[in-house]
């Protein structure tokens, strides 16, 4: 098995997610941001490419408006940024939609993308799913991502339920899910992360059903 050729993708680690209605709730950003920073430091030490992505809703938008403080990267990320990072502004949930990311990854001979940042229930999910079609292997760091509480006409789900459910879903088909320490060890050893699959997840899930 060949070693993964990784890139670390920082999804929307913007000030918008650190206060107000979009504030990350689970894992709380006070816990996930240090893990994102740890992943950045590990990637930098290993010499793997890093991409910093910011979401834009357009000038004058109520959220993610360019030129506002909320649009900017969190200072912990900004101070680590170097000229070698690739910067992208996106307009859609997926990091690939309408951007040059896929072409840039191929240009840099990347076959495996590691996703960190926000939110699990939006851009992380959309990006992991689209990567299947594009041919990239995806990794998601469970403690370096985060979700919010959601409520609408379809129901309510607290942030912990949203986060853990979606990571279980992703690990069943679209991504290898691990915590940052496990990923760092895999990075050091140049090994792929282990992942599940839909069949195995279904069998394991059926065994956990309550007995009648």
Structure overview:
By secondary structure, this protein is an alpha/beta fold. It has a single domain, classed as Isochorismatase-like (Rossmann fold, 3-Layer(aba) Sandwich). It contains 7 helices and 8 strands; from the N terminus they run βαβαβαβαβββαβαα. Strands 3-2-1-4-5-8 form a 6-stranded parallel beta sheet. Strands 6-7 form a two-stranded antiparallel sheet. Strand 6 and strand 7 (155-157) form a beta hairpin. Helix 1 (29-46) runs parallel beside helix 6 (180-189) and helix 4 packs parallel to helix 5 (159-171). The chain is globular and about 50 Å long. The protein starts with 5 loop residues before the first strand and ends in a 5-residue tail after the last helix.
Q: Taking strands numbered 1, 2, ... along the chain, how are they ordered across the largest sheet? A: 3-2-1-4-5-8
Give the class from helix and strand content and strand pairing.
alpha/beta
Overall mean pLDDT stands at 96
Number of H/I helices: 7
Question: Uncertain spans, ≥5 residues at pLDDT below 50?
Answer: none
Total domains: 1
Topology as a string of helices (H) and strands (E): EHEHEHEHEEEHEHH
Beta content: 15-25%
Q: Number of DSSP strands?
A: 8
Q: What CATH architecture would you give?
A: 3-Layer(aba) Sandwich
Oligomer: single chain
